[in-house]
Design goal:
two-stranded antiparallel sheet, Serine Threonine Protein Phosphatase 5, Tetratricopeptide repeat, 37% helix, single chain, mainly alpha
Length: 566
């Protein structure tokens, strides 16, 4: 089941051209698909839908960084979606650093990017529009009239409305991300002509478009019959109504920052719906969420499906294992990639300091951290001459893993500590893009921001997450330390604690920059090493709360106006 969506995606990718440079701002070129070939079968339609999903998972047409990359001129490995988001959401924050200077990574680390000096910003913009283009293409072709014309109505007629809802959801997700990162962008839908030059829409208009699409596919708009599957009834890897609730909650949590409108009550309502439905209950062990058999994890609402044989690339969770470890680490615990680790990402001191110092050291006799209080404190500290500081004796950043600790919650092994059956060349961990623990923390934050509920409820939500992290109470199991509950008191609960708890719970899950911006602590109010290129960090211009629209996009569409300050 895990491989189903990937198999269709790879099969369909052969029908696509490798050159997608015209997707910078424009709809998918009509010549990029051979319609009669692709849409002549039920499998063809499912392959196009799989490509909509696959645009957030795969990087090209051949796999394994083998060429024919999705984005013209882009480094295929660097331009995979969740790897790109690491550079935008984690690298500029108090979580992680990657010393490389290629493709604008040093600019991202130092918060010194502009509209032309960070390729990863441009590739993120292009990939999101590429996903939108695939979804628009599917929506143009997956209609009642075209299915009947092609003799496929009997096969797809009962399901095509749900398939259209999935494409609309993925498109809404892409627009929510464009709204977050770039603000005022162009809205392009299935009715936009392939040669039209789209106008620039306001951030509010982009937000409202995504909002209305999500409400529609969640079944909350009268007259709309393009609705996602009921909770937990979709094929694995496909989205259902809970994914729509989750994304609405996330958008509403950030609405005051994005469009100046307080929507915390709506955030609370949708997050609570996820929690009380109990369709995706918290995993019993936090560590199981990030392993090669996490398709069995009940908590993951929307996984981006990865497979070491069927979906090979240097992006995705392959990056989150290999970049975070090096070869010698595999001699200390089972990484699942043997000596293949790259060793070029390590934790910043501010992230390490988010945990109790007693939980930080790596114990060679306790490689899963069963004896830790907080099982989320997964760091590699046991390499020769390794130090917490991210600089050497000359006060310089280096590429060696002696400077800074590794972060090792991602492991290409099963929960039984067996190697992934797909091998160690590429990892097989599904990326948990949406998961229920985040809904608990969103609900708690929305309550504290005046969105409804009460403090006791918010405290219960936070303590549920912490009790699971400490594996105490109902989460206790034999052989794992559970004598410290992790629960906090009402006096300890405030917004700053929520921000810190989100860091502990969701590190490397692509929300940290967004969280810091929402809390007013990204460009000022909080510093960390290498911010603005300074060893201990310093404040930067407020313009960095948003990314610039890439210069290349403004060249392609002169009607686009650059974001303030760039």
């Amino acid at each position: 089941m895990k491989k189903y969506i990937i198999s269709l995606c790879l099969l369909f990718s052969l029908c696509f051209t490798s050159c997608l440079g015209d997707l910078d701002t424009l709809p998918l070129d009509e010549n990029s698909l051979v319609s009669e070939q692709v849409y002549s079968t039920e499998e063809g339609y499912m392959g196009v839908l799989a490509k909509c999903y696959g645009s957030l998972i795969l990087t090209g047409q051949q796999g394994g960084d083998g060429g024919m990359g999705d984005l013209e001129g882009a480094n295929e490995g660097y331009s995979g979606y969740v790897r790109l988001l690491f550079y935008l959401e984690e690298q500029p924050t108090d979580n992680f650093l990657m010393p490389s200077s290629s493709n604008g990574l040093r600019k991202m680390l130092n918060l010194q990017w502009d509209a032309s000096n960070a390729a990863v910003i441009k590739w993120t913009y292009q990939r999101l529009y590429m996903s939108i283009a695939y979804c628009n293409e599917f929506l143009r072709e997956c209609t009642e009239s075209k299915l009947k014309e092609r003799g496929l109505w009997e096969k797809l007629g009962d399901d095509y409305l749900a398939y259209r809802a999935e494409a609309r959801f993925i498109r809404a997700y892409a627009y929510s991300q464009l709204c977050n990162y770039f603000g005022n962008v162009s809205l392009i839908d299935e009715n936009t002509g392939v040669k039209d030059i789209p106008a620039q829409n306001s951030r509010k208009e982009v937000f409202e478009f995504a909002e209305q699409e999500l409400k529609a596919v969640a079944g909350e708009v009268a007259g709309n019959n393009e609705v996602l599957c009921d909770p937990k009834t979709a094929l694995y890897g496909h989205v259902d109504k809970v994914a729509a609730w989750f994304l609405l909650s996330r958008m509403y949590l950030n609405a005051e920052t994005w469009i100046g409108t307080d929507r915390y009550a709506d955030c609370y309502a949708y997050a609570k719906r996820i929690i009380t439905s109990n369709t995706y209950p918290l995993a019993s062990d936090y560590r199981h969420i990030f392993l090669a058999d996490n398709e069995t994890c009940p908590e993951i609402i929307w996984p981006l499906v990865q497979d070491g044989q069927m979906a090979q690339s240097s992006a995705g969770t392959n990056f989150y294992v290999k970049a975070f470890v090096n070869g010698p680490m595999d001699e200390l615990y089972k990484t699942g990639v043997g000596s293949r680790g790259w060793g070029n990402v390590r934790a910043k001191m501010t992230f390490v300091d988010a945990f109790d110092p007693a939980d930080v050291p790596f114990d060679k006799e306790d490689t899963w951290g069963n004896n830790k209080m907080d099982k989320r404190a997964q760091f590699m500290t046991a390499l020769d001459n390794q130090q917490k500081e991210t600089w050497d004796a000359d006060m310089n950043m280096t590429s060696t893993f002696t400077c800074g600790y590794g972060y090792i919650k991602w492991r290409n092994v099963t929960k039984d500590n067996n190697n992934a059956p797909q091998g160690d060349a590429y990892v097989s961990i599904d990326y948990p893009l949406f998961r229920t623990a985040d809904a608990y923390l969103m609900a708690a934050e929305a309550i504290l921001r005046g969105g409804g509920g009460n403090r006791a409820e918010a405290l219960d939500y936070v303590n549920e997450i912490r009790e699971r992290a400490y594996m105490s109470g109902k989460y206790a199991v034999d052989g794992v330390r559970s004598d410290v509950s992790g629960k906090i008191t009402d006096a300890e609960l405030n917004l700053d604690f929520i921000l810190a708890e989100r860091q502990r719970e969701l590190a490397s899950e692509l929300v940290r920059r967004t969280d810091l911006v929402r809390f007013g602590k990204f460009t000022s109010g909080k510093n960390w090493e290498w911010k603005d290129g300074v060893r201990l960090g310093q404040d930067v211009d407020a313009k960095y709360n948003m990314f610039p629209i890439p210069d290349s996009e403004i060249t392609n569409n002169p009607d686009l106006k650059q974001n303030d300050g760039y």
